[in-house]
Structures are given as C-alpha cells and as structure tokens.
Amino acid sequence: MTALSPSNAVAVIGAGTMGAGIVQVAATAGHTVYLFDTSPEAIDKGIAQIEKFLARSVSKGRMDDEKRIAILGRIKRCDKLEDLAPVKLVIEAIVENIDIKRSVFSQLEDILDEDAILASNTSSISITEIAAKLKRPERMVGMHFFNPAPIMKLVEIIHGLVTDKQVADIAFATAEAWGKKVVHAKSTPGFIVNRVARPFYSEALRILQEGGADIPTIDSCIRESGGFRMGPFELMDLIGNDINFSVTQSVYNAYFQEPRYRPSLIQQEQVAAGRYGRKSGQGYYDYSEGAVTPEASTADSAPAPTEITLIGENSLLDPLVTLAEAAGIKVNKGDTDELSGFMIDDVLVLLSDGTPASELSNVLSSPAIVFDLALDYKAASRIALAKGDQVSDEDLAKAVGFFQALGKKVSVIDDCPGLIVMRIVAMLANEGSDAVYQGVTNPKGVDIAMMNGVNYPKGPLQWAQDIGLDHIFGVLDALSSFYGEDRYRTSPLIRRAVIAGKDLV
Ligand code: NAI
Q1: The domain spanning residue 146 has which CATH number?
Q2: Is 183:154 a contact under the CB 8 Å cutoff?
C-alpha cells in the first residue's frame, strides 16, 4: 500500500504536546499541515514548541536553516474545522474524552471528502467506540504516536472492529514514510506498548512491596544488568506517578480486573501523597535542590576464588567464563547438567530459573545462591545475587568474590523468585506472548513496539528466545507455583512453542 504523497495536505487537531509533535513530523516529511485547536493560545504555544525544537536542530548542525524555514512555512494555522476541507488525512490529538472526540469526528465527516482518513492519537479509548456512531466508521483508524513525537520512533496503527484494511495500510505506509517504525495492532486496551509494559512497573513494585530489594537497587540492576536506559522507579517518576497509576488502573479495569494488571498499593500511596515524581519534586526519589540520590546496595569486597567449575552448557554464561579466565581463575568443566552456573567449593552459584535459592538448597542438598539475568554478562556492571535462607554468609561471600573478581558490583538481595531482571524480562515476554496469542499483533510487532515505543534494549520475545524459551517457561512456572496466583500463569503461546520446540519470533 502506498503512503499519502507529500503533495497531499494533512491536518492535526489539537496543538498540545502530542499534536504539535505530530505537526512537526508531518511538516518535516514535506506535507502542508493544517493545525486546528479550539484555543488560539494553544496553537501559539504548539508552534513555539516546534520553532524551539527546529532552532535547536539547526544550532546543533542537524538541520540547515533553509529546511527549518521550509518546515515552518508548511504549517497553516486554522480558526475553524471547515478550513480542513482539502485534506486527505486528519490526525486528532485533543483531550482524552470520548464524547468530545466523537463530536469532532462527526463534524469532520460533513466537512471532508468521503475518502479522507480519520485518525485518532488516543492512548486509551477504543477506536471501535470512537468510530461507532460515524457515518463512515470504516474510515477511522488509530495512529498512536509516542511522546515526544518527533523523537520517539514508534507509531501503533490501531484497527477498530470495522476499520477498512486499506485505510490502516495507508496510515501505516504514511507513518513509515515519515520515518517511523510502525506496527499494526487490534483496538484492545493499552494497544501494544501500554499493555506489554505493565510488568516492567508492576513486578518492580511487587519486589519492593515484598522487601526483595530497595528502590535504588532495583533501578540499578535493571539499568546496569538489564541494559535498560532507566529503572522502573526512575521511569515512573519521569512519566508521573499519577499518569502511570491511571494508565494501570485503566488497563486493569478495561480487562475486567485481570489480575495481571492489578495496580499496586505502593503506587496508590505515592499518588495519594501528591508524590507524582519529577514534576512535583518528589516521587520515589527526592528531586529537591541538594537532595542526595540514594545508592544501590553494594556488597563489600570479598576474596576471589582460585578455581570454579562450570555447570551446564548455557552459552549465555560464556562471557562470564571468559572474564573468569582473564581474571586468572581456573575454570573446570563440570558434567552436563540441566542447571546453568558455577560451583565454587561446594557452593552452587546458579543462573536464576525462577526457583528461590532456599528451595534449590533444599532440593539439591548443597548451599545454593542464585544470580540474576544480564542483557550481556560482559557489559553488565552489576549483578544481583540471593542466597538461600539456610546458606551461610561465608558461602555467600564466595559468590560475591567471584563476581567482583570479574569486575562486577554485586547487590545481595532477598531470596525473591526470579530475582529482578530475569523476573521482569520473563513477565514482559509473557505479556507480549499473550498479546500475540490474543491476536493483538504479531511477535515482531511486540518487539518493534517495545524497542521503539519505550526504548527497551531488546524486544521481549526475541530476548526470551535468546535466553532459551524453555528457561523462560521454567521461570514463569516457578513464579506461578511460588505465588499460586493467576497473575503468574504462563502464556499459552510460550507453553505451545516450548512443547513443539518452535521459535517464538
Ligand atoms: P494536551 O492537553 O497537551 O493537548 C490537547 C489539546 O487539545 C489542547 O491544546 C486543547 O486546547 C485541544 N482541544 C481540546 N478540545 C478540543 C476540541 N474539541 N477541538 C480542538 N482542540 C481541542 O494533550 P496531549 O497530551 O497532547 O494528548 C492529546 C491526545 O494524545 C490524547 O488523546 C492523549 O491520550 C494522546 N496521547 C498522549 C500522549 C502523551 O504522552 N501526552 C502520548 C500518546 C497519545
């Protein structure tokens, strides 16, 4: 399907944060863009936002002045909806209210040509529902940009129940021509990103609530081991705890109180206290002037082992073997085993498979310590460890000394199942798999969406596959048996792929 040619004018309704960003994207791609807002001041502000962005691009040498002037010249302010008559595509980015959105679209139907495409940037309202009372509901589609629209690469193309496939395909191709990474998604609560991302926050909150680790330790492990740009608490403070809480509630309720999305009491308390995050000066962290940023808990230095034995044949751990040898530690090759990790004296140091270390110590009749997943064990600067409740501090020190000898900081956390990164990645992959299983999108759609909508370092489904789908299946099964909650049930898609020995992506 071909994109709308830049010779076709497009329109944006709503000149707020998102509308102004979308205007900039379309005008940069060469379209004349009509901008309408009920508030003329909002248009002034929106255009000022674009001017500031473009001026910065010129001053940083990313754009020449001629281009800046041309882009601004293509933006046309409009005082009334009737001015939008010539356009073939309207993108609405007004207040998140179904009645107001419906009223705008029904007025537009009388103004625009019959073949015009009506798109909404809504984050949380059903495209099916917005379209329901229109004369031509099949012309309505979602074009969900991410904030800030000129920078964030993703656009989700949302199909309502009766959206014409051709309409969605044109919207897709047009967003792609605008330089975006684009995915198709069925109109379901949260679409892809706002649904699949829920465990990033909810599992972090759950680990905190259960005393597994403190806030800076969870954030640091997610960044320094998981390779994410921000930890969950830093990100919630940036998004705003009020907004994040309201998205969680909206997805939870839209799925009829699905336990997977149940909001956290900790977050509710933050909101009740007005601790919204950066914008209010206080959230999970204190942003007031002179405030000291709390540090992750980091273990004191312990002696390095002289030799270790590798357990299992998990290629994920190869970088740790290389680092160990480079650090002068003799690495013996042990027997092939279902477990992955190392033996230091009689202490088992195992990659988390979701089973708590206390249980492993019992079942394996040896002191067991589990370590967390890293995106890349060579690059990771921190590793979380947990010892079984019955394991001594002397035995823990052997594992701490081993990872420290490889140049890693070590965070010793409580024995919570799956630790931090493994648990969150497994739950993200589980949620992504359910979205695919329920026909919201395809596996590539999940990965593209999460990498470009929220900057994840790897798509969760590809990541699960790289870790080993059977390993992730084991982690999810262990979480499910530990908690006995519906929230931790394994996605049928993962179960079926593991049974059939098939890939997910
Ligand atoms: P905003 O509050 O910054 O801007 C909304 C603008 O719409 C205001 O300038 C307001 O004057 C105007 N407006 C209100 N009613 C109107 C009407 N009947 N006709 C014309 N203009 C009208 O809102 P924001 O954040 O830009 O969000 C807009 C839409 O984009 C919402 O549907 C929201 O769910 C969605 N969205 C927001 C994201 C975000 O991070 N802020 C991300 C992705 C989507």
Answers
A1: 3.40.50.720
A2: yes
